[in-house]
Each structure stands twice: as C-alpha cells, then as structure tokens.
C-alpha cells in the first residue's frame, strides 16, 4: 500500500519521507473555542449519532462529537463503510483535523481519530506527512506515520543513519549531523531543532544536486566530439552574399564561441540565451552552415508545429539561392513525403532538417548528424534532450536556445551543466515597445486605436488566454471574442484571421500564413503564437484578460511585436476589478521590457515549480529546497561541490564513499545520467 501510493518500500524510504509541516498537539481545545479563524483543531469528546447518509455510490458517514461546551460534526466521504465498523457510539475520542465551516456549523472531514487515552493524549509536535486520500481511508494517517517513525527510531542508532558529509564540511557550513537532522525532522522536540534539521537536509539536497551537475559538466568537458576543422565555402558565401543584415556584435561574439567549441574536438553543449527578438535564429542557421561546411548534417528542433514551420520557411528562403536542400519534419508529415525525408536523412543527401519532437523518434536516423539546435529549450523535457544522443555513435554538438531569460538561480540548477552564451543586445533601430494597461471600460478607445494603427498599414494581434482546466470555456470566449472583433473591425474593410489549438494543423497554418504574408490585418489567437512567431510588420499586441497570464508569458507575447523599426504597442486589457497580485504583474510589464528583470520577478512571485514548464522536466523536484528562498544555500553548495571535486574528482577518498554511493543512486533514479 505505502509502496503503491508513495513509493515507500524500505525503512530508508520511510525516513526520507519528510513531514511538510508540524502542528502543536499539546493543546486540546474546547469545541466552543472553534471559530472561523481556526485552521486545525484538536478536540476530545463523546461520539454519538453515527449515521450513513446518501444513497448508492455517494454514501457518506456522519457523526457528532460533543464535549461539555458544544458539538461538532465529523464527516467521511470515502471509506464510510470501514469507518462505520470501527467507530463506537458513546465512547470518548481524541479528534484532530482541518476545520471547515458549512453554513453556520463547523465540521471536520476525514479527521484523525482515536479512542481517548489520557496517557498518549498529548502528541507534542505532530508532523504532517504528504499522504494520499487512499491511505487516509485505510486509516494510515499522520499519526500512524509518526508512530512508525517513532518506533523505528527506538530501534536504530547513529550507525544506521551514518554521516555522509565530511567532518570539515559540517564545521565550515554549520550543519548538524545527519542522524539528528533526520530524527528531528520526523520527531522534533523543539522548534529550534526542527529548523536546524531542515536547514541541514535542505543543504544536503542542494549539495547533491550541485555535485551531480558539476560531475555532468566534467563529463561533458571530457566528451569527445566531431571536429569542425574549417569555416568553408557555404558559410562564407552566405555571409558575403545572402545575409540580409549586419550581425550585431553580440551575435558575432556568440558565433565565435560556437566556432571555438565545435573546432575543439570536444562535444559542444551550449545554452544560448537571448531575449525575444535578439536574433538567435540567424546564429542557429549560421552554425548549421558551419556543420555543412565540414561534411555534416544539422537539424533544428522547435517545440510547436507553428514555430517549426516558421523556421522552415525562413531558413528555406534564406538558403534558397544557395541550392541547399531543407525539409520540414513534423508529426503531420506522413506517407510518401515522410518516407522520402527519412531516406534522404539516412543516406546523407538531405543536409538540413527542421522539425518538432518528431525528430527524436526512433525512425529518424541521420547519416552524420553534426549539430542539433534546440529552440525554446524550456518546452522540452530533459529526456528529449537526451534522446538526441542516440542519433550517432558520437553525440552531435548541441546548441540549446532559449528566449526566456533564466534567472541565475534557476540556470544553476537547470542548466548548470551547459556552457552559456548570451546575446545581450537587440538589433539596431528597434524602438522600445510602449506598454499600457487598460481596463475593460476603456475597450472602445483601445479598438479605435487599433483600427488607426491598422489603417496605416500595420498588423495587430489579439490574444486570448487558453488554459487547460477551463479549456471549453476559454474556447467559447475566444469564439465570442472573434465575433466581436469582426464587428469592431468592419469585416468588409479589414481581413481577420484566427488561429487556435483546436483547428486542424493545415487550417491553422493557412490562417497563420495569411497573417505572415500580410493578407490578414488582424490575427485573433490563443497562446499558440507565444513563442517564436515573427511578423515584423505587426505593431500592436492586445492581450485580452491579461490578469490570467503569467509574467513570462506576457513578455513572450509582447515580443511578437517591436520586430520592425517602427513604434510598437502592447496593450494589457483586464477586467475593471483586478487583484493586487495581478496589478503588480501588470505594473512590472508596463515598467520594463527587460526580460531578465521580468524573469526574476516571475520566479519570485510564482516560485520555480510553475516556471517555463519545468515541472514536467523533473529536474527541480526538490523535497525540501526552494531555489528562490534558499538561494544563499544554493550558492554555498555550488562552491562546496566544486571544491570537493577539485580535491577528489572521482570521489575515491574513503571519507567520500557515502557521497559517492548517494550520487550513484540518484543517477539511477532520474534522467541525470543522460542529459545531452
Ligand atoms: P529570437 O531571438 O526571438 O528568435 P529572431 O531570430 O526571430 O529572434 O529575430 C528577430 C528579428 O530580428 C527577425 O526578423 C530577424 O530577421 C531580425 N534580426 C536578427 N538579427 C538581426 C540583425 N543583426 N540586424 C537586423 N535584424 C536582425
Ligand atoms: Mg526564436
């Protein structure tokens, strides 16, 4: 049961299953003292009126507990049968749980309940463990967890929980020993001990992750790679005759870094960070030409169909006069066309392929893949990055690009194994996008303004939120919005296109292309256009229901305009009443266009879990650590990890054997071992 529900199958696992908070259960309160401010309560009283209510599958169990001051209802929605058998009327019970207010009565649903025993009534600090509904129904509660760990600690001593960190480290960083830490986490006798324990285990957790990253990095550095000996004909020809603009200094600098990496005989693993519109694509293209010059194939992988198509069109156009074949490979390319592409990749006659994650499917084999570019990396899971390895006996050079500037702390945890390049300069002549906040009551004026912009020959985006939980509703509001836009913008005079995730890809693409080619004036869209889409003539980005967007998302969307030389605008439209939190987000957007600042604020406001789809990547699943709150510890552990590996790169010294074992185990559990 524990194993299925929480992956706990050994005592070690049990010890690693930390409580997430503690409740003071030294106090038993009177039922009358419960009020609307009471979050959790421990009461004692006599149980009466045990009754099943409802019919069929919806049965629930209700009981009343009373003491000399009042009564409270206890409820079980699940496991009613079982509880009914266990509970006895007119017996005295000790009850603990979260208090709810229903109408004007208080109740406790699924309480922790046990027969009154004056000797064990004071439970001290009660740890709350992450548990599941299923376990609760079977009566495995926090109390049972606590009892399990308690009896475990009665039997084990220091030797069962050995110290893994060297003595000097404990001293240097002021950490308590591991036995105490784990003991106090489960059975804290004082609040201070609990904090000391938590600090130590947080430190350890971050330290291990930083060690893993540092080791990966060492492996990367030692990993042989294809040597791109020369800058050849193709690159030079493109540079001299086909490059449509002058490269910025930042772009040149990054190309130089890539040139050095790929010429070194070691595998390149580089992260290219550059704010939206900073011109990463051209860097990717020119790096691919470098691969071609040295007899290799290259690919670029984008997270969405639209983005892959867009890359495909712009790359084919740029390379059209040079006679370099480029193909697009996505999940929608099937049958003969697909077969031909696969064949040409395998025999080497197709040098460049642009695609989605369809590229990492087993069936896609390259003759000699020399460079893989991954655009908008944060959308891909780590596992996917790793799978590019398999395309060759020698791994290709990997260039990872991201438009979402990653706060330093997150970069340290997520990409600490990669070398980093930054494009910190926008192409010349760009005007800063003017961003304003407008409330719904000013909608008329906003539409008027947009019409004027469009009348001067510019194009506009109108973006609606679309999030999964309420997808159907969002879909309807999008369609309603579309109808409204058709009224605002006289349909006979203006051309309006719409793209969203529910269209079939061909239709979506057709509509998108109408906008890209300038045949449509206004694009009504969902966030499918969030990344990468490039229409320099578009000058207005209207974000509908901006209160529902996260900061980074709004920044990405705003980056769709301001790509030409003219003044562009971003309008954040919200309801008339918005929350303080939302107001703060909007103010940040209005006050800065600096992607790094925005990313830092986003991280601070939302926490790392939500950021950039990293939740799925499984990389920052810490049990205790929070990389925003624990930044100081993160920096310490990073330094400590580097220091340790400099001293003992293979972790061969006897005092490091526990750490080594720990790393080996962690490596097995996650994707760590295989990140490209
Ligand atoms: P991102 O970094 O967001 O992927 P893109 O590569 O799409 O940005 O580039 C944004 C726009 O800027 C494109 O229209 C591109 O052609 C243009 N661009 C890129 N580099 C330069 C440059 N050095 N000078 C002028 N325009 C450039
Ligand atoms: Mg891009």
Description of the structure:
By secondary structure, the protein is α/β, with parallel strands linked by helices. The protein has four domains: 21-128, OB fold (Dihydrolipoamide Acetyltransferase, E2P); 158-222; 233-423, Rossmann fold; 434-592, Rossmann fold. The strands form four sheets. A seven-stranded parallel beta sheet has the order 11-12-10-13-14-9-15, sandwiched between helices. Strands 16-21-20-17-19-18 form a six-stranded parallel beta sheet, sandwiched between helices. α9 packs antiparallel against α11 (280-293) and α10 packs parallel to α11 (280-293). The radius of gyration is 30 Å and the shape is globular. The structure holds adenosine-5'-diphosphate and magnesium ion. Residues 245-248, 251, 274, 276-282, 403, 427, 534, 536, 563 line the site of adenosine-5'-diphosphate. Magnesium ion binds next to α11.
CATH top level assignment of the largest domain: Alpha Beta
Q: Count helical runs.
A: 24
CATH fourth-tier homologous superfamily of the largest domain? P-loop containing nucleotide triphosphate hydrolases
Helix content: 40-55%
Q: Which ions and ligands are bound to the chains?
A: adenosine-5'-diphosphate, magnesium ion
Separation of termini? 37 Å
Question: Layout of helices and strands, plus pairs?
Answer:
Elements: H1 2-6, H2 11-16, E1 21-24, E2 40-53, E3 60-66, E4 71-76, H3 80-86, E5 92-102, E6 105-109, E7 112-115, E8 125-128, H4 133-137, H5 142-155, H6 167-173, H7 178-186, H8 191-222, H9 233-242, H10 249-262, E9 269-274, H11 280-293, E10 297-301, H12 305-319, E11 326-329, H13 335-347, E12 352-355, E13 369-375, H14 382-387, E14 397-402, H15 408-414, E15 419-423, E16 434-439, H16 443-455, E17 459-463, H17 471-488, E18 496-499, H18 505-516, E19 522-525, E20 538-543, H19 551-558, E21 569-574, H20 580-591, H21 595-606, H22 614-617, H23 631-647, H24 657-669
Parallel strand pairs: 4-6, 9-14, 9-15, 10-12, 10-13, 11-12, 13-14, 16-21, 17-19, 17-20, 18-19, 20-21
Antiparallel strand pairs: 1-8, 2-3, 2-5, 3-4, 5-6, 5-7
Helix pairs in contact: 7-8, 8-23, 9-11, 10-11
This protein binds adenosine-5'-diphosphate and magnesium ion.
Residues 280-281, 375, 403, 532 line the site of magnesium ion.
């Amino acid at each position: 049961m524990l194993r299925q529900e929480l992956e706990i199958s050994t005592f070690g696992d049990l010890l690693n299953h930390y409580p997430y908070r503690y409740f003071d259960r030294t106090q038993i309160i009177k039922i009358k003292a419960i009020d609307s401010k009471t979050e959790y309560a421990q009461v004692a009283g006599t149980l009466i009126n045990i009754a099943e209510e409802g019919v069929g599958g919806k049965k629930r169990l209700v009981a009343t507990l009373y003491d000399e001051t009042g009564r409270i209802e206890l409820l079980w929605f699940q496991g009613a049968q079982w509880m009914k058998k266990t509970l006895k009327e007119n017996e005295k019970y000790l009850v603990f749980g979260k208090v709810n207010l229903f109408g004007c009565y208080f109740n406790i649903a699924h309480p922790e309940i046990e027969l009154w025993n004056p000797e064990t009534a004071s439970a001290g600090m009660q740890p709350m463990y992450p548990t599941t509904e299923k376990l609760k129904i079977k009566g495995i509660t926090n109390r049972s967890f606590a009892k399990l760990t308690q009896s475990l600690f009665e039997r084990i001593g220091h030797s069962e929980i050995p110290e893994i960190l060297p003595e000097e480290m404990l001293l240097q960083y002021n950490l308590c020993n591991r036995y105490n830490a784990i003991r106090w986490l489960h059975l804290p006798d004082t609040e201070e001990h609990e904090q000391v324990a938590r600090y130590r285990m947080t430190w350890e957790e971050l330290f291990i992750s930083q060690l893993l990253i540092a080791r990966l990095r060492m492996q990367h550095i030692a990993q042989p790679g294809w040597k791109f000996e020369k800058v050849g004909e193709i690159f030079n020809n493109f540079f001299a005759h086909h490059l449509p603009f002058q490269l910025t200094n930042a772009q040149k600098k990054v190309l130089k870094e890539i040139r050095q990496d790929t010429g070194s005989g070691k595998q390149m693993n580089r992260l290219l960070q550059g704010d939206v519109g900073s011109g990463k694509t051209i860097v990717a293209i020119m790096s691919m030409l470098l691969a071609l010059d040295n007899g290799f194939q290259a690919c670029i992988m984008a997270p969405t169909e639209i983005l892959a198509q867009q890359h495909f069109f712009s790359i084919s156009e740029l390379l059209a006069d040079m006679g370099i074949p480029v193909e697009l490979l996505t999940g929608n390319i099937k049958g003969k066309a697909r077969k031909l592409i696969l064949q040409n990749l395998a025999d080497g006659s197709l040098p460049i392929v642009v695609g989605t994650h369809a590229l990492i499917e087993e069936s896609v084999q390259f003759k000699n893949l020399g460079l893989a570019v991954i655009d908008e990396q944060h959308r891909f899971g780590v596992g996917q990055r790793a799978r590019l390895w398999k395309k060759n006996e020698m791994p290709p050079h990997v260039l990872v690009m991201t438009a979402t500037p990653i706060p330093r702390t997150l970069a340290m945890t997520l990409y600490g194994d990669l070398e980093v390049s930054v494009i910190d300069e926008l192409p010349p002549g760009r005007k800063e996008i003017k961003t304003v906040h407008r409330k719904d009551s000013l909608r008329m004026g906003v539409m008027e303004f947009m019409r004027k912009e469009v009348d001067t020959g510019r194009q506009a985006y109108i973006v609606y939120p679309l999030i999964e939980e309420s997808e159907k509703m969002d879909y309807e509001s999008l369609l309603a919005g579309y109808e409204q836009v058709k009224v605002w913008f006289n349909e006979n005079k203006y051309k309006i296109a719409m793209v969203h995730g529910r269209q079939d890809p061909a239709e979506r693409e057709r509509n998108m292309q109408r906008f890209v080619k300038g045949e449509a004036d206004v694009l009504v869209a969902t966030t499918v256009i969030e990344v990468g889409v490039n229409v320099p003539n578009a000058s207005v980005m209207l974000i509908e229901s901006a209160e529902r967007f996260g900061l980074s998302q709004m920044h990405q969307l705003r980056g769709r305009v301001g790509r030409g030389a003219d003044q562009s605008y971003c309008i954040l439209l919200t309801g008339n009443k918005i929350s303080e939190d939302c107001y703060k987000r909007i103010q940040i957007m209005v006050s800065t266009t600096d992607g790094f600042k925005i990313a830092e604020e986003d991280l601070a406001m939302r926490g790392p879990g939500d950021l950039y789809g990293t939740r799925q990547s499984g990389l920052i699943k810490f049990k205790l650590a929070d990389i925003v709150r624990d930044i100081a510890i993160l920096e310490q552990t990073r330094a400590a990890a580097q220091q340790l590996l400099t001293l003992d790169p293979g972790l061969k010294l006897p005092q490091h054997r526990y750490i080594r074992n720990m790393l080996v185990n962690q490596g097995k559990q996650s994707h760590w071992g295989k990140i490209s």
